[in-house]
Amino acid sequence: MRRFSNYACSTAHLPLAEREAIDLLIRTATQRQGRIVIEHPSLSIEAHQYGFAVHLGLFDDLSDRPDDISPELWTLMNHARRMGANWLWFDRDERPSPAFPVFPAVDGEGTGATAQDDTAAVLPPPGTITQCCRSCGGSRVMRDAWAHWDESAQGWTLGAVFDAAYCEDCEADALLVERPVDTKGTAV
Ligand SMILES: [Zn+2]
User: Which InterPro entries does UniProt cross-reference here (predicted)?
Assistant: First the structure.
């Protein structure tokens, strides 16, 4: 026996076209001796109830990305492989990671919320704070910051955050204040 590792990932990290193409392959998959065969030209894919899993064994034979795998998927697969996974498990209920880009999704996908726990998922944990504009009280505020390139995550990672702030509602530089958030998710 051998133990396999799975790396779970939100389907929202897959470009929409590729996600739809794989879903179409799953919908139109044929059966061979009762087993579902998903005919992707490069990938070994297994469908499951909340998405699908991609086998990472192709790195044994390939070092360059085949044309039928998007750079985004290739990056995720490489990352999972480096974490020691044998399978990259795409799950529409998995929360997206801030380390990877997210692509616009259909209802609820990629938010980590399901139809049953919609309300529970959006409630902030106790002690959650928000940042507000001192003039108007709005929370559409931002700070100056710089980012550095993270080669392993293949994305920009937040570095220092500077004091300068801006309020989108005031359309002006702003001073920020911290406010606690109540259990309904609104600043108090
Ligand atoms: Zn403001």
Answer: DUF5983
